[in-house]
Design a protein that fits this description.
- The complex is a heterodimer of chains A (about 110) and B (about 110).
- Chain A is mainly β and about 110 residues long.
- Helices cover about 0% and strands about 55% of the residues of chain A.
- The radius of gyration of chain A is 13 Å and the shape is globular.
- Chain B is mainly β.
- In chain B, about 0% of the residues lie in helices and about 50% in strands.
- In chain B, a hairpin with a 3-residue loop joins strand 4 and strand 5 (about 40-50).
- Classes of the chains: A mainly beta (about 110), B mainly beta (about 110).
């Protein structure tokens, strides 16, 4: 079946540090991949997406590259800010299975 | 344009009580979804409605019922609440392309 595995958190960083949050997936065919962000007390917002192999999604300084050979979609940011503190969810949707499948989420805490 | 709205924001129930969670969207989308979010579990799909007049079960439908009242509204009902239903409930609605799901702010439910 379809599944998404994320690294467990929390990830604790100082401001301006480099961020990586790992995400790997299992799916048949060619899924689309997403990162969502959830700020405290709010719903989820789409952060970025990639719809085919080798695509790079980017938004607000965050990037993730769709790697089919390693079935991965790791989230990166070169210099995090305190305002990036949130929970990040990796997700996929597969052709013919029109429902989002979410990972368990990774909490990021950035200190000044 | 409010997007997706949910009521109530917070509710405490006793075991065996019933309640209905309300969701409305003003984006004229066909599809609407109900998820629950639990620590370490990510988001799990309870029910969804692909269009007005249709509903389908997701991963965890037991103990819930839904009604797609019209194109705007999709309600989730707990007939006899159990402590295992303590969770945060999110309603979401995508446009035609599934990936950009718009989420409501959530309903935090505590069942004692």
């Amino acid at each position: 079946g379809n599944s998404v595995t994320q690294m467990e958190g929390p990830v604790t960083l100082s401001e301006e540090a480099f961020l990586t949050i790992n995400c790997t997936y299992t799916a048949t065919g060619y899924p689309s991949l997403f990162w969502y962000v959830q700020y405290p007390g709010e719903g989820l917002q789409l952060l970025l997406k990639a719809t085919k192999a080798d695509d790079k999604g980017s938004n607000k300084g965050f990037e993730a590259t769709y790697r089919k050979e390693t079935t991965s979609f790791h989230l990166e940011k070169g210099s995090v800010q305190v305002s990036d503190s949130a929970v990040y969810f990796c997700a996929l949707v597969n052709t013919g299975f029109q429902k989002l499948v979410f990972g368990t989420g990774t909490r990021l805490l950035v200190s000044p | 344009n409010a997007g997706v709205t949910q009521t109530p924001k917070f509710q405490v129930l006793k075991t065996g009580q019933s309640m209905t969670l309300q969701c409305a969207q003003d984006m004229n989308h066909n599809s609407m979804y109900w998820y629950r979010q639990d620590p370490g579990m990510g988001l799990r799909l309870i029910y969804y409605s692909a269009s007005e007049g249709t509903t389908d079960k997701g991963e965890v439908p037991n103990g819930y019922n839904v009604s797609r009242l019209n194109k705007r509204e999709f309600s989730l009902r707990l007939e006899s609440a159990a402590p295992s239903q303590t969770s945060v409930y999110f309603c979401a609605s995508p446009p035609g392309n599934l990936e950009t799901q718009y989420f409501g702010p959530g309903t935090r439910l505590l069942v004692l």
